[in-house]
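Hey team,

Filing this mostly as a record. A colleague (T.K.) asked me to run one chain through the structure pipeline before their review meeting, and I want the input and output archived in the tracker in case anyone asks later how it was produced. No errors, nothing strange. Just documentation.

Input sequence:
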Amino acid sequence: MNQPLHKAVIPAAGFGTRLFPATKGIKKEFFPLIDQDGLAKPVILIIVEEVIKSGIQEIAIIIQTQDYSLFADFFKNPPPAKFYNKLSRESKKYSDYLQEIGEKITLIPQEQQEGYGHAVYCAKDWVKQEPFLLLLGDHVYRSNIDKSCVHQLVELYQQYQTNVIGLTIIPEDIIHKAGIITGNWLETYLLSITQLVEKPSIDYARDHLHIPNMKPDEFLAIFGMYILQPQIFDYLEDEIKNEQRLKGEFQLTTALDQLAKAQGMLGYLVQGQYFDIGMPLFYRQTMIDFKMGS
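Output structure:
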């Protein structure tokens, strides 16, 4: 059965502790970047715009309860008249456009911050029984081809109608910071996933996760972009009910591994680059590289 893709979920409920003290005054999702159009935009807006340009028109942002007014004020409320009247004609048009974007956005509170998997689970009732796009709230993306990174994944989902996650190649010295996958190549850039492991040791990865024909010190890691069937919520719910935590939190990767084994899952080596703004040096480098996509 052909299931169209209507919805996207963006978790943005973290504390941003690695960016303290800046995050004492501003949420990391509102850190500014210069986008391709030359405008200074908060990270969350760049992510939302990429989603909308891919054709998805319903977006849920998972937030901390106390941040509701912050996100609502940005996406759903016009600026004060005195401020609006000082804007250029082009900026006024963009301000009006922001209100249009706000109509597509639902804000969902995460009452307690208990990990990425828990944040995703908060969207269960909103997603209902539909496939959905999932993006990280502190990653922005730049494509190397004429299709955006999100659009590349959306097209694959439309073709195969199954779970699809974006992948990137990373060196083994940083695999302890990422979700790592293994599987079997089906064609260039596309493989059938057989296992996903959150932050494995180098020894485990070498023994169980390395993919033939790749360099010995390189592995496939999760890109931070997923299209998932709603059954992912069943696995997340089981882990939450049974207190199955990893390093004190409910993770997504363990539920993804179960979903892949039950339904099948494709991994796609995204033709593009992700920029992680979640740590000071990464944010600094993103500010330098993002606009040019270098």
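Quick notes for T.K.: The longest strand covers residues 218-228. Residues 183 and 193 are 4 Å apart (CA to CA).
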